[in-house]
From TrEMBL, chains A, B:
This is Cytochrome P460 family protein. Residues 26-152 form the Cytochrome P460 domain. CDD domains: cyt_c'_beta. Residues 1-19 form the signal peptide. It comes from the Bacteria. InterPro entries: Cytochrome_P460, Cytochrome_P460_sp. Pfam families: Cytochrome_P460 (PF16694). Keywords: Signal.
Length: 157, 157
């Protein structure tokens, strides 16, 4: 009996409820709802990390979350960052620099506000955050706790 | 019999195959596929008309058209123009200035390359092109004949 309980505890410990669970690549996000966009230029405090033009995309659950303020598990938000090239008094999109992904799972990612964080370099599937989600992502997002840890708000029109 | 034929001719003349048919407001376009974006700044030759940040959205038929080069009747493309506000070394989206709409119907809009053109001011349903599609829209788009009369190309990634 004691062995059985111990085994159950070990099983529970090995269950997927842990902060380091990798966030999957957001397949098909380019067809999701386009939430808003922004250009970050030289001189902006986040230019080194996020300089360029970025678009925010939300899957259906995330779109509902933006509206209600409550994000269900499975809500996914993508921050899609492209180079911003100046051409003849216009800013046009260049190559993809990185995509950032936030995936909601209140239990799995409890250590980082209920959101899993990951980023994929360029057009690749190469993970550039991995186990660094806490320091590389959440330390900034933590300040947005009152806004569900998000910087973006829905431009619902 | 002659009366019947005459009546049929009148009916045909009154059929919807005419260039002035109004292009309907593109309901739900904010959920369509986001094709690409661009910022037009002061100094650009189109700044007076199109200054700001614009996003291009395509319905499913238009998305297929971008990919195949052949646009089926019912394909709709939206040019969504917002104010571009400079804030702390960033460009953020402001109020909507206008949406431009191209709707494919090869017969109905044969006089303007098979595309109907319309624009709606701000967030309203107020038509700002109406019967001026030829001079206000098509005269520029005509130069893009080899590209299905479009300026935008799909950023298919």
């Amino acid at each position: 009996m004691r062995k059985t309980i111990l085994f159950a505890i070990v099983l529970l410990s090995a269950s997927p409820v842990r902060a380091a669970d990798p966030v999957p690549y957001p397949e098909g996000y380019r067809h999701w709802h386009h939430v808003k966009s922004m250009v970050i230029e030289a001189g902006h405090p986040l230019y080194d990390s996020f300089g360029g033009i970025h678009h925010i995309y939300a899957n259906d659950k995330a779109l509902q979350g933006y509206r209600s303020g409550r994000f269900a598990d499975g809500a996914v938000i993508v921050f899609d960052l492209l180079d911003a090239k100046s051409e003849n008094h216009a800013i046009v999109e260049g190559a993809r620099k990185v995509i950032g992904v936030m995936r909601r799972d209140a239990k799995r990612y409890a250590a980082t506000g209920g959101w899993g964080f990951e980023a994929f370099g360029g057009d690749s599937r190469e993970r550039v955050v991995g186990a660094q989600a806490d320091t590389a992502c959440f330390q900034c997002h933590a300040g947005q706790r009152e806004r569900a840890y998000l910087f973006s708000q829905l431009r619902d029109r």
